[in-house]
Amino acid sequence: MSGNITFTMIKPTAISKGYTGKIIDQVIRGGFRIKAMKYTRLSKKEAQRFYAVHKERPFYESLTTFMSSGPIVAAILEKQNAVQAYRDYIGATNPEEAEEGTIRKLYGTSIEANAVHGSDSDENALVESGFFFSERERY
Ligand code: CMP
What we know:
By secondary structure, this protein is α+β, with helices and mostly antiparallel strands. The protein is built from seven helices and four strands; from the N terminus they run βααβααβααβα.
């Protein structure tokens, strides 16, 4: 059975370009309920730990440098079948391949600076949520 939470981050470039409010608004309009949210910044070591599943990939070094380059917004979102629903909603990983009107198409500028992160499985949604939020920060 699929779970009802997913984890997202608004990435540094989308924040510095001033898209934070627009992205949060679009997420809410998509029927995702905000269960937890914080404005924070990852250290390089934290970014490496967060993206540890990608550590053998060629983009790991660049991705973790980028993700620790400025503040991010982290959030847990709730919806039925949340992981897949959110992945469909934000658009393809590469903004150039994302559908018109999706968050990544509108606000992403490259495969790395693709505006938002979205969990790729229920298991990772739980791990990633736990990385940022204690139980008492979830409502
Ligand atoms: P995200 O959802 O944050 O999860 C892993 C990230 O790796 C992904 O979004 C992309 O921003 C980034 N990335 C960089 N290069 C690639 C690539 N070639 N394939 C997939 N993901 C990539």
